[in-house]
TrEMBL record:
Family annotation (InterPro entries): DNA_helicase_Holl-junc_RuvA_I, Hlx-hairpin-Hlx_DNA-bd_motif, NA-bd_OB-fold, RuvA, RuvA_2-like, RuvA_C, RuvA_C_sf
GO biological process: DNA recombination; DNA repair
Known partners and oligomeric status: Homotetramer. Forms an RuvA(8)-RuvB(12)-Holliday junction (HJ) complex. HJ DNA is sandwiched between 2 RuvA tetramers; dsDNA enters through RuvA and exits via RuvB. An RuvB hexamer assembles on each DNA strand where it exits the tetramer. Each RuvB hexamer is contacted by two RuvA subunits (via domain III) on 2 adjacent RuvB subunits; this complex drives branch migration. In the full resolvosome a probable DNA-RuvA(4)-RuvB(12)-RuvC(2) complex forms which resolves the HJ.
Origin: domain of life: Bacteria
Name the UniProt record assigns to this protein: Holliday junction branch migration complex subunit RuvA
Location of region: Domain III: 152-202
Coiled coil: none
Predominant cellular place of this UniProt entry's protein: cytoplasm
Gene3D superfamilies assigned: 5' to 3' exonuclease, C-terminal subdomain, DNA helicase RuvA subunit, C-terminal domain, Nucleic acid-binding proteins
Keywords from the named record: ATP-binding, Cytoplasm, DNA damage, DNA recombination, DNA repair, DNA-binding, Helicase, Hydrolase, Nucleotide-binding
Organism: Halalkalibacter hemicellulosilyticusJCM 9152
Xref: HAMAP family: DNA_HJ_migration_RuvA
Gene Ontology CC terms, in alphabetical order: cytoplasm; Holliday junction helicase complex; Holliday junction resolvase complex
Entry comment, domain topic: Has three domains with a flexible linker between the domains II and III and assumes an 'L' shape. Domain III is highly mobile and contacts RuvB.
Length: 202
């Protein structure tokens, strides 16, 4: 359901799973894949694309930085076994382009790395969505080299984050630093060093 297309207003609060935007005196609680990606905009006016989720006992707004993220979220909700929490986790753990490339290349090994995605769900994602996402990233889905590079980089990043968890860093800290790392291609050690640099600065 898409009743509210977007909300624009000052970003007044960032929490672990949601942000709050003040729109004409009302504070909208909006759940996001990674709320801390908006940290640099705290106090500023931002625009976020929304999806309104309604069930008998649930009414929530989900928000995304781009329309493409929102479209992928909606597509994921149509896959059996994936709800809003699971779809958010997938978007939080990987760029939309990476997820789409894995689906188009039928890379189950890549998809099962996402939280809550087992082999059955990964196969269902491929069955339901392959060939239906090209309009989001038309130049990416046919490039095998891209998915191989993305898969390797993603694995190294996940190993680095696991190592940081073992060192005692909590999810809130890792969520803050992850957006700084996702666009880089480093070794596991490289990701760890870069993450520590960002956390020391903050």
């Amino acid at each position: 359901m898409k009743v509210i297309d977007y909300i624009r207003g000052p970003l007044v609060e960032i929490e672990l799973s949601y942000i709050v935007i003040d729109h004409q005196g009302l504070g909208y609680q909006i759940y996001c894949p990674n709320p801390f990606q908006f940290q640099a905009n705290e106090g500023e006016t931002i625009q976020i694309y929304t999806y309104q989720y309604v069930r008998e006992d649930v009414l929530r707004l989900y928000g995304f930085a781009t329309k493409e993220e929102r479209v992928l979220f909606e597509k994921l909700l149509n896959v059996s076994g994936i709800g809003p929490k699971g779809a958010l986790a997938i978007l939080a753990s990987g760029e939309p382009e990476n997820v789409i490339a894995a689906i188009e290349q039928e890379d189950e090994a890549f998809l099962v790395r996402f939280p809550g995605v087992g082999k059955k769900t990964a196969r269902q994602m491929i069955l339901d969505l392959k060939g239906k996402l090209e309009e989001l990233t038309p130049n990416l889905t046919s490039n095998r080299e891209v998915i191989e590079r993305v898969s390797t980089s993603y694995s190294e990043l996940e190993e680095a984050l696991e190592a940081l968890r073992a060192l005692g860093y909590v999810e809130k800290e890792l969520k803050k630093v992850r957006p700084h790392l996702e666009n880089e291609e480093l070794t596991t050690d490289g990701y760890i060093k870069r993450a520590l640099q960002y956390m020391l600065k903050s």
